[in-house]
Amino acid sequence: MISSRLLIATVAIAALLVASCEAKPKRKNVSVTDTEVVQARDFALKELIKLSDSYRDMKVNRIIKAERARSAFADGTNYFLKLELECVSVCAAPLSPASTCRRGKYKGENEVIVFWKDDGHYDGIAIDEFPQMDGEFHPCTPSYKGPEKCNPAEHRTPEQAALFADDDETAARDEL
After folding, report:
1. Cβ-based neighbours of 136, under 8 Å, separated by 6 or more
2. How far is CA 99 from the centre of its chain?
3. Interval 123-163: pLDDT, tens
4. Among 144, 168, 28, residue whose Cα is nearest residue 91
5. Which of 91, 107, 120, 156 is positioned for an S-S bond with 138, CB 3.0–4.6 A?
6. CB atoms < 10 A from the CB of 87, how many?
7. Cβ–Cβ < 8 Å for 84, 59
8. Cis peptide before 139, with omega less than 30 degrees from 0?
């Protein structure tokens, strides 16, 4: 009798544990003009721009929808943003050394999750699909296959250009 009660209690506790583990935090709609949502949008844009030289001129036309929920680990808040993104990429100098910059245009809707930690910082983003430019790769990228030639000098950062600058003193020593 006691063992059957113990078995029933164990099964009930196990069922409650499984049910609580499967429960996802509920998303709540948030105003697209809410200060926290605007800050999350700005962080997401900064992070996107860092991902590729193609995204340097990316902008957010508008926030279509915003939701908020506690993170699954209960250590922060996730902002679920549906954004209208737009970009015209010219792959302007300087390009990063292993650039995959693609020239062209992009306009589309993307869903982005921004992770905010309770200790007061953004932790990162996730995006449903990376924006794809509709043009060709820049001639200075490894993926370019066209006839245009690359001029590496025009794509050097100021720091890189300083390494290649002609120094009169060095040039004079080299001539000796």
Report:
1. 102, 103, 104, 144, 146
2. 16
3. 999 999 999 888 888 887 777 888 888 777 777 667 767 77
4. 144
5. 91
6. 20
7. no
8. no
CA distance 28 to 25: 9
Nearest residue to 80 (alpha-carbon basis) of 92, 71, 93: 71
Question: Which pLDDT tens digit goes with each residue over 46-62?
Answer: 999 998 888 989 999 99
| Token digits of residue 121 | 């910082």
Which residue type, as a one-letter code, is found at position 145?
K
Of 60, 54, 50, 111, give the one whose Cα is nearest residue 86: 60
Rounded to a whole number, what is the distance in angstroms from the first to the last CA of the chain? 103
Number of H helices, E strands in the chain: 4, 5
